[in-house]
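Quick one, T. Sequence first:
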Amino acid sequence: MKKETIVTAKTVEAAKEIGAAELGVSVDIVEIEVIEEPSKGFLGFGASDAKVKVSYELTRGELARDFLEKLFGNMKLDAKLDIEENDDEINVNISGENMGILIGRHGEILDSLQYLTGFAANNGRDDHTRVTVDVENYRARREDALRILAKRMADKAKKYRKSFTLEPMPAYERRIIHSQVQEMHGVTTYSIGQGNDRRVVIAVEKM
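Structure tokens:
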């Protein structure tokens, strides 16, 4: 996807520089299409400026920002975006007031937002860049809470010699539970259920 502007100036080079400034990027990365060449006219009469289309290819991070800004604008949501982009990953952190609306129960809305942002950033590209979207570091706080829960339930399973089934969780949250319990002796985990009802069971390891 390209961002572009049409500029008129005395010369093509001047139009290129003005266009780059309007787009907020370096003149070195823009492409130009000359729509009309400048004309000096005759004896000072009939002179005309150059008309140039100046454009540049948006990075994936910029595509992600563009998608989210339009979405939040339609939602009348005042959100601040902090985006870090490298060759193989884009990390987006969203902050502001009343951001809970973007998280949902167990991060379900946040996961959907992440999927849509990733689709917008990678749309039309041959390769794929991973996009992670977070709201005020919710994912880190949720991971800490899940690891505490996993340890507590694993201790109960060992103490009472019985299995405990946790509430339904999305796949990435189940992976956190599995990972935490794997570090503990005498207990194991497995998943049951289908789709949105899939749950982790913490059980005593068979001798």
